[in-house]
Amino acid sequence: MEAGIVGLPNVGKSTLFNALTQSKAAQSANYPFCTIEPNEGMVSVPDGRLERITKYIPPQKVIPAALKLVDIAGIVKGASEGEGLGNKFLSHIREVDAILQVVRCFEDPDVIHVAGKVDPVSDMETIEIELMLADIQHLDNLLPKAERAAKSADKDAKLKVEAMKKCLAHLGEEKPLRTLPLDEAEKKAVKEFGLLTAKPILYVANVDETDLEGKGPLVQRVREAATKSGAEVVPVCAKLEAEIAELDPADRAEMLSGAGLTEPALAVLARAAYKTLGLQSYFTAGEKEVRAWTTPVGATAPEAAGVIHTDFEKGFIRAEIYSLDDLEHYKTEKDIRAAGKLRVEGKDYVMRDGDICHFLVNK
Known about the structure:
alpha/beta
C-alpha cells in the first residue's frame, strides 16, 4: 500500500512524515517549500492481532503489513501555472494508491501560513483545484498519442481515448475524477493514466495539543467538507507525534498515556487508510514467521495467495483457514484441527479480515 502526502506549505506534512517514518532527515523549518526533493519512507502498520497470534505460535520473526509514504513539496494556488515550486513533484505520486492531504487546523502566529490566515476548507479547495488542473494537463499531453493509435483500429486505444475525453469533460466541470462513474474497462484505463483526483483521498487534520480528538471548530469544518465528498478525516497532532517518535519505545507508551492517547497516529491513520482503500489483512503463521498480508475487501482465496507469490494464485488448490478467536480458545493449530474448526476453502472462498491461512498450491 502506497500513499502520497500533499498539502499547502507549512501545514505539517514533513513533520508528520518524519514522525510516522521515525526519520530525522529533512526536518522541516518554519518557511515555505522546505521539502524540495520528495521524501519516501516505509512504515510498519501496527496490528495488535500479530502479538496475539505470537502468544500461541512463537515465530523467529514478525512481519507486519507495510505502508509506503511519499512526501512531496507543498502545493500553492497557481501551481499549475508555475507558482511556488509548480506542480512538477506531482509526478512522484501518480503511482500511489491513495492521497493523504494534510490540512492545517491549528493557530500559531509563529508558523507562517502562505495564504495569510488559517482556513482549512479553503486549503482543501486549493489543493483539489490544483490536482484537477494537473490531471487536465496530464490528459492533454497523453490524448494526441492515444488518438493517433486509435486511428489504426486499435480497440484498446479507442477505449482509452473515450475514457480520456470523459475524464476531461468531468474535470472541466470542476469535479474530481473519484466522483466520475466508470465501468470496469474504463476504470482500468484510467488507472493506467495515474490521475491524481481519481485516487481515494483521506484528510489528515493537523491539530494542536489542546484538540487531540479533533473536536474544535476548524476540524469540524474539515469534516463537513469531507463528508460531502464521502471522505474520512483523521485528527493528528504532528508536533506531538514527532516528539513521541524521538523517545525510546519504553517511554512512548507513558507519553501517549499522559496525552490521553491509547495509540500512536500511525495506527489510526493505517486503519483509516485501509478503510479508504477498501483493504483488509489476513495472516500466515508458523515457526519461521508470523506475517500480515494486505488484500482488497472481496478478494478470493486464490487472489490472496497471489499476494504472497503470483505463482500461488495460478497453482492454488485449497486454503486451510481458522480464526484468531479459535486460536485463543484452542491454543494450538493441532487442537483447532481436532475440534473441526479448521476450515477447508476452495477457489470461490471470499477472504475475511483476520483470517489465518495455510495455502496448498501446485508448484
